[in-house]
Each structure stands twice: as structure tokens, then as C-alpha cells.
TrEMBL record:
Organism (species): Microlunatus aurantiacus
Domain Tryptophan synthase beta chain-like PALP: 75-410
Enzyme Commission number(s) from the entry: 4.2.1.20
Gene: trpB
Residue list for modification N6-(pyridoxal phosphate)lysine: K111
Protein family: Belongs to the TrpB family.
KW Secreted (keyword) present: no
Subunit structure: Tetramer of two alpha and two beta chains.
Protein function: The beta subunit is responsible for the synthesis of L-tryptophan from indole and L-serine.
Protein name per its UniProtKB record: Tryptophan synthase beta chain
Extent of the signal sequence: none
């Protein structure tokens, strides 16, 4: 085994990286659903604090991470970048595989990178409560944790399919003091309408977003927090890639290709955008591959057009690859990947040819997750197994010692029943 299996830089990044500064063309703006004009800051004020609204439209390359946020990041950051020697050996590949592991956060995934930042800015501007949606529950648990650390209340609408099949995440939210409802619920107008249309619906992220947005708009002390998709979320997640770049630099490696799973696009963007920025500025040629589920293939099968981020049409219109805002994906285990759209900035990058996308079948994803666990010990989150499947296929086909960087967005130990279905 090599002498450097684990690379950990000594410092938490001081700044987030913003790809908007380096894109050859700006990302199409979010539009007001009524006027179809680009949104102004006041349009978003009922939902988000001003600091996040400014980040949403910022084109500054580097944005300083407030010291209190860095202080919380220090609980688990920098996260490790690990050379997967054992996996390489098991695959008999000449490729070098590194994985950046975000499951070391207290909540178990990359989601706290933005949850902490969003809770911080909301608390700083006097909000006392955040509402949100969650799929598998990783985001709801992360926001509940961040709210606990920063003294806010947290109310979460969890997609019905996951609420029923993943009770441990709800319990995790409750330990942190969060309140979790199944979605659709009878607590909101949007939820009641969805239940009237289909009382047995398994729910979707788009439905849960409608409920959480409605709840925030109706409460003067509450704001809404989104776990993916928006520019400010992708910005916060860039700590992953900023660290990974520094970690690879430290050992004189580059990344030939980056694989990340993509639901709304935030962990993929967080890991890959600093590498894309370097491509655009310095002419490097790191490839980026988004790995999405074949059951919800927005990038590989969707249309690139303006669409709502939710089912009820309460959100702004976003230019993105979309399967249609009323698309209800089948209840696959990777609940965090069941989103009809994709982050506008990831969609724009795909449209410009800066990254590519593949769709992975659930069975192939779990097979890869099991292979990874048996070689490296770590059980990836069901979402992350989609990236593992992409990286494994690449490594198997490799004929050179190319470097593959794999984003492992979360830990799967609370998802073992899902694994059990595929053993
Ligand atoms: C572990 C994990 N990975 C990935 C995702 C997908 O989200 P995103 O594409 O925004 O990273 C989720 C969403 O809940 C998740 O929990």
C-alpha cells in the first residue's frame, strides 16, 4: 500500500468559489412567474435573507466564509480525500481512484456545508425559524442540526415515500429538535390539493418544496431554505472542491475526471466547479461526469427550458434540464435524487459542454455500492452509489494511470434496508 492513502489539508477554506466568475456566458437568470422578467432582490425577500439573495446573483470569484461558519465547519472539515488502493486492486485497474468523503459530517452527508451557512445568515438577519423539504432525509437532518447549532426552529416536509421507508432520518431530525411532516400533508393548501388529486401519492421533492415555501411565506418570522439547486447552495458546497483541489495539489496530482451523483446538482457542483474554473482560467482539461438515476433522468432525457422548481408553481421559473414540474419519479431508494429538474448552473454547464451526464440504473448503483463497501469498508449513501457506478465503469475501462476523482456525498448506514433489497 502507498504511503499516502489519506490526504488531509490542515486548514478549512477561507472562501467559497463561485463559478459564475469564470463562465464564458452568464447562467440564464431566474424569472418572476407572473411577469417573466428577471427576479429582483425584493421578489426573493419573503423567502431568503438578503446575504443569500446577494450570493444568488454574485459574480465575484471568491466569497469569504464568515468566521462563525468556518468555526462550525471545523467540526468535520477539511474532509478526507482518500486513495482507494484496495478498490483499484480489486478492479485490477491501472487508474488511480481518489474519493472525497463528505459522510464525515455529523449529519452524515455534504448537506451541512450549506445548511450551516443558510442557518447562519438567517439567524444574523433575525429569522427565528426555517422551513424546508427533504427527500431521503439527509437535507432535513442537516438543516435540523444547523438550526440546533445556531438557535433556530426547523420544520421539515419529507417526501412521503421516504418518510415511510426511512424512519431513522426523521428520528435524527427530531433528536436535533426539528419537526418533520410527511408530504403531501394536510397542513398546507398545496398539500391538500395534491392529496385531493391523488390520496395515495408517494410524494416528490417538487411537492414538498411547495409545502415548505407556502409555510414560510405565511409566517413573518420564518424563512425557507433549499437544500440544492440554487446558486448560493452550490456556492457553499464549493468547499468540497476547493479542499479536493488543494489536497490533490499537495501530492502533485491532478484529476483527469470527476464523478459526482446529481439530484439537484449541489454535491456535484461543489466538488467539480473549482476544477471547471481552473479549466476555464488555466486551460486544464478535467472532465466532469454527472451521474443521475435512470428513474429520474433530467440531464440525459429532460428538456432545457424554463420550469418551476416545485409542483404547485410557487417558485420562480428556473432555466434547467427538466422532466416537467409535475413529474413524479418512481420511489427509488436514492430519495435525494428524485427531483424533476437540475440546478440552473449545472444545467448551463452541461448545455455549454463543460460537463457531461450519464444515467445509472438503481440495481447497478447498489451493485457498485456493495463493491465499494467490500473493498474500502465504507458504505456509500444510495445517492452516492450512482457516482460510484460511474467511476467504477470508467476505472474498469481504463488503460492508463489516469486519475479518477469520486464524490462520495454521504454515508449509507441509515439506508441499510435499501441495500438489503439488492444483496
Ligand atoms: C447523500 C446525498 N447525496 C446526494 C444528494 C443529491 O443532492 P445534490 O444533487 O444536491 O447533491 C442527496 C440529497 O438529498 C444526498 O442526501
Amino acid at each position: 500500500m502507498s504511503a499516502e492513502p489519506v490526504v488531509v489539508p490542515s486548514q478549512v477554506p477561507t472562501h467559497w468559489y463561485n463559478l459564475a466568475a469564470d463562465l464564458p456566458e452568464p447562467t440564464p437568470p431566474a424569472l418572476h412567474p407572473g411577469t417573466r422578467e428577471p427576479l429582483g432582490p425584493q421578489d426573493l425577500a419573503p423567502l431568503f435573507p438578503m446575504a443569500l439573495i446577494q450570493q444568488e446573483v454574485s459574480t465575484e470569484r471568491w466569497i469569504e466564509i464568515p468566521e462563525p461558519v468556518r468555526d462550525i465547519y471545523r467540526l468535520w472539515r477539511p474532509s478526507p480525500l482518500i486513495r482507494a488502493h484496495r478498490l483499484e486492486k480489486a478492479l485490477a485497474t491501472p487508474a488511480k481512484i481518489f474519493y472525497k468523503y463528505e459522510g464525515v459530517s455529523p449529519a452524515g452527508s455534504h448537506k451541512p456545508n450549506t445548511a450551516v451557512a443558510q442557518a447562519y445568515y438567517n439567524a444574523a438577519e433575525g429569522t427565528t425559524k426555517l422551513t424546508t423539504e427533504t427527500g431521503a432525509g439527509q437535507w432535513g437532518a442537516s438543516l435540523s442540526m444547523a438550526c440546533a447549532l445556531l438557535g433556530l426552529e426547523c420544520e421539515v416536509w419529507q417526501v412521503r415515500a421516504s418518510y415511510d421507508s426511512k424512519p431513522y432520518r426523521r428520528m435524527q431530525m427530531e433528536v436535533y429538535g426539528g419537526v418533520c411532516h410527511p408530504s403531501p400533508s394536510d397542513l398546507t393548501e398545496a398539500g391538500r390539493a395534491m392529496l385531493a388529486a391523488d390520496p395515495d401519492t408517494t410524494g416528490s421533492l417538487g411537492m414538498a418544496i411547495s409545502e415548505a415555501v407556502e409555510a414560510a411565506v405565511g409566517d413573518p418570522n420564518a424563512h425557507y431554505a433549499l437544500g440544492s439547486v440554487l446558486n448560493h447552495v452550490l456556492l457553499h458546497q464549493s468547499v468540497i472542491g476547493v479542499e479536493a483541489l488543494a489536497q490533490l495539489d499537495e501530492i502533485g496530482e491532478g484529476a483527469d475526471v470527476v464523478y459526482g451523483c446529481a439530484g439537484g446538482g449541489s454535491n456535484l457542483a461543489g466538488l467539480s466547479f473549482p476544477f471547471l474554473g481552473r479549466n476555464l482560467r488555466d486551460g486544464t482539461s478535467t472532465q466532469v461526469v454527472a451521474c443521475e438515476p435512470s428513474a429520474c433522468p433530467s440531464l440525459t432525457q429532460g428538456e432545457y427550458r424554463y420550469d418551476f422548481g416545485d409542483v404547485a408553481g410557487l417558485t420562480p421559473l428556473l432555466k434547467m434540464y427538466t422532466l416537467g414540474n409535475d413529474f413524479v419519479p418512481p420511489p427509488i431508494h436514492a430519495g435525494g435524487l428524485r427531483y424533476h429538474g437540475m440546478a440552473p448552473m449545472v444545467s448551463h454547464a452541461v448545455n455549454l459542454g463543460l460537463m457531461t451526464a450519464i444515467a445509472v440504473d438503481q440495481a447497478d448503483a447498489f451493485k457498485a455500492g456493495v463493491e465499494f463497501a467490500r473493498a474500502e469498508g465504507l458504505i456509500p449513501a444510495p445517492e452516492s452509489t450512482h457516482a460510484v457506478a460511474g467511476a467504477l465503469a470508467r476505472a474498469r475501462a481504463a488503460t492508463t494511470d489516469e486519475t479518477i476523482l469520486l464524490g462520495l456525498s454521504g454515508n449509507g448506514v441509515l439506508d441499510l434496508p435499501a441495500y438489503a433489497d439488492f444483496l
